[in-house]
Specification:
The protein is 26% helix and 24% strand. It is built from six helices and twelve strands.
Length: 314
């Protein structure tokens, strides 16, 4: 994978203007009863994001579970990945057309895609208005994603960044962001923004993902945007609930408001029809100034490669 030069600065990134992002904690119960209805729903959310000035809309992990609302009768759990992958392949061209029409980017959540060996990756698709795209396959799989009698996934093997409107952006999916080793790898790529689509079935899972996302903002001296699914899709067999919210985390620096929170909508299960939709500004120019030496104590990307680890035996 060819990576953009991490030292390249664009006029957009240096302009001092904030860059606006929209995070939709998609309510799976509102995904529609057909591919056309699902696409129409994404169109409405893109319209809202664009009208509120956002340059990118983020949908969560496994937004494809909404497709199960129109699955064939009698489809076994072990057949759901293939069904969602087929429906995703049919729907993606329509989402690409929406992105071109609205003129803003879309992280189209994640959905299964064939791995070429009979299995499936959990892939996040990034669709951009210039017709370019980027994909991230989930690297760290949960026990649920390793069950032979359920949703058996294949782990991805690459990590990278893409550029959009002068920003260097990376994607990690859910459990990926809980793995500090991936943060160390990302640090050398100098992302301005890390996007974390997730799906968590309860408040504990939500707290792990969002807590680690907040830590990544400090470690990477970058903005981190996280959102997850809420509600339950008609026809869903697993999980039985989804709890999440939407947050933009920032480095904990005085010039960024001290607390590390750039915007936040609290977690909900979405069972009353709630769908958190956060629009927030990413202070790219200030983040880059801090990363270049203006932070209070941040020493820069640090691998600890020279640290000697000793056991209890000395």
């Amino acid at each position: 994978m060819t990576q953009p030069d991490p030292n390249t600065k664009s006029a957009a990134a240096e302009s001092g203007d904030a860059w606006r992002i929209a995070l939709c904690a998609f309510n799976l119960a509102l995904g529609g009863q057909s591919p056309a209805a699902f696409v129409a729903g994404v169109d409405a959310r893109l319209t809202r994001a664009r009208e509120e000035g956002a340059r990118l809309l983020v949908l969560p992990e496994y937004v494809s579970e909404a497709f199960l609302a129109w699955k064939p009768e009698g489809l076994p759990v072990t057949g759901e990945l293939a069904f969602m992958a087929e429906e995703g392949a049919r729907i993606l061209p329509s989402l690409e057309a929406l992105v071109a029409r609205h003129g803003i980017g879309l992280v189209a959540g994640s959905m299964p895609v064939p791995d070429g060996k009979g299995g499936f990756f959990n892939r996040a698709h990034v669709l951009l208005p210039d017709a370019s795209s980027f994909a991230h396959d989930k690297l760290a799989l949960t026990p649920f994603e390793l069950e032979a009698d359920g949703w058996l996934l294949t782990a991805g093997g690459e990590l990278g960044v893409f550029e959009h409107e002068g920003l260097r952006i990376a994607v990690l999916i859910c459990l990926d962001v809980e793995m500090p080793a991936l943060s160390v790898l990302l640090a050398g790529l100098k992302p301005d923004l890390l996007i974390v689509p997730s799906m968590t079935s309860n408040l504990a899972g939500y707290s792990r993902v969002f807590g680690c996302a907040r830590a990544r903002a400090v470690e990477l001296m970058a903005a981190v945007a996280a959102c997850g699914c809420v509600g339950v899709a008609e026809g869903a067999t697993q999980p039985a609930s989804n709890v999440s919210g939407a947050s933009l985390f920032l480095p904990c620096e005085p010039t960024l408001g001290y607390t590390g929170i750039g915007g936040e909508i609290a977690a909900t299960d979405g069972m009353d029809g709630e769908e958190p939709f956060l629009v927030a500004d990413v202070p790219i120019a200030e983040i880059r100034r801090l990363r270049s030496g203006g932070a209070e104590v941040w020493p820069g990307a640090w691998s600890a490669r020279d640290v000697i680890v000793r056991g209890n035996d000395g």
